[in-house]
Structure formats: C-alpha cells, structure tokens
C-alpha cells in the first residue's frame, strides 16, 4: 500500500509531499534492506537541487 510522505529538502529548504512505496526485506527476523520507490522522481530531484547560479 502506498503512503504519502512530506518533507523538506535540506539543500534547498523546499517542502514537498509525494506518494512512496517501499519494500522491506527481512532475514532471520532483522531488516536487511529497505528499497523505496518514488512516483515522481523529477519532483524529488527538483526539490533537492538548488537553482542554477545559486551559491
């Protein structure tokens, strides 16, 4: 079942909200891997990237 995430990008301070689905692998009762799947990777990348010429 997909979930909704909300967060703020540290690099830019921009807020974003997006759906996410993740698989969790468990071995011997311990989590060994968490693999997130983002619906809109462009929106996540844009929120984390400073505009050109910034700095």
UniProtKB/TrEMBL annotation:
Keyword Isomerase: yes
UniProtKB keywords: Isomerase
Molecular functions (GO terms): isomerase activity
Domain of life: Bacteria
Listed Gene3D superfamilies: 3.10.450.50
The name this protein goes by in its record: Ketosteroid isomerase-like protein
Organism of provenance: Nocardiopsis composta
